[in-house]
Structures are given as structure tokens and as C-alpha cells.
Amino acid sequence: MMTHPLDNIFWHSLSDAQSCFAAGEGDARRYAKGFSPILGFANALQPDFDAINAYCEPGELFYCAGWIGTIPSGWTLEVESTMYRMLWDGVMPPEDATFQARRLNPDNVKDTQDAVSLAQLTNPGPFGMRTIALGEYLGCFDKDDRLIAMAGERSYAPPYREVSGVCTHPDFQGKGLAKRLMHRLIRRQLLADEIPFLHVMYSNSAAHELYLRMGFRDYCQTAVRVIRRIE
């Protein structure tokens, strides 16, 4: 039975357009080591862990969406929650020529380290040393060349492109930096005939309300788990 790509977005991304960033076989994939620790399964409701076990080391944490079944042998549940998957339904954001933002270079050690440090400080979701290679990541910097805000692109199943890694250093929140970064990314995506979408935790009501005001709408609400390989 055919399903909409957004109903199982991580599988559609990892098994097709982003297969170059994936590891796994059969009906299971993961982003390769160093990228965002996310699992994707052809059947999200009944994931085939036997097909992915060999690609996951003991101690590794992974995010898994859309699944609420029994935890399989060799794994343990760390977090169980719910998130919104939101789809762009707004107008083209206006061009913001005066906004100072810079593309983060995945081949630049400083850019990579700065992005990971900001993600660790603010916890925008699963993030790894190589995550900024998954798409375009934009950052704002202070006068000392410190990364203070960023937003980028993660999963991609044409034409759906995820806006992700949205975060701002606590010392610079409330200035609208993340929103302006998001607008620049969304504008680029729309001009490329892509459709933006994003994820936000159900508990993060402030961010959810902001995204609704920006022009996103709720596509669905889905389970999300963080699980750990133990053997």
C-alpha cells in the first residue's frame, strides 16, 4: 500500500535520496555514524530490528519515530514522547538582504565543532559531528566569531525537505535570529520547488505556536522514542 512520504519520512529519506548518508539493509536503515542518530524502517509500526542490529554498536542512542510496540531484545528504552510533524502552508518569506548569516561548511573543522557545541548546549534534537553535511546549514556569529544561532536541513524525500537544528545560544535568545534563519532556508527551498517541513516536540508549546504563526500547519502527531543498543 502506498503511503505519503511524510507518514514515514525517515525511511523514505534514508532509502532513497539520502541513501548515500545511510547504513543498513533490508527494511531498516540508519544515518551513518557521525550523522544524526535516527533509525528508519519500511514498516514504522513493526520495525525490523534484526536488519539493523549489526549496524548499531552497544551504547549507541537512536531516535525512532512512529513506533510504540514492544522493545526488542538487545535494546532499552531511554525516552518515550510525542512530537508534531509540521508542513509548510504559508507564503514565500520576503527577502531579507540585510540579515547577516553565513553558510556552515561541513569541511571546516571550526564550523563543525561550533555547530555540535551549540547543539549540545541547546538540544534542538538528534545531532552529530557530520549533521551539517546533510543539507544547507546557516549560522549567525557574534563579533568574536562565535556561533550564536543556527538552522539547517536534515531529512529529504523529494520534494519534502526538513528544516532542523534550529537553536539559539541562551545569551542571544529573543532577538528573532532563529526565525530569520528559518525564513532564509524556507525561501531557498520554495524557490527550488521543495516543500519545507519540520518536527517539534509536543511539550515545546512555545516553538509549536511560533511555527504555526510562521506558516506551518500540523501534518500529524507521532510517537518518538530514544532507544539504546545494549548488546
TrEMBL record:
Q: Which CDD domains match?
A: NAT_SF
InterPro entries, alphabetized: Acyl_CoA_acyltransferase (IPR016181), GCN5-like_dom (IPR013653), GNAT_dom (IPR000182)
Q: Which domain of life is it from?
A: Bacteria
Cite the Pfam families for this sequence: FR47
* Residue ranges constituting the N-acetyltransferase domain according to the UniProt record: 102-231
In Swiss-Prot or TrEMBL terms, this protein is called: GNAT family N-acetyltransferase
Could you tell me which species this protein originates from? Undibacterium amnicola
Higher taxonomy: Bacteria, Pseudomonadati, Pseudomonadota, Betaproteobacteria, Burkholderiales
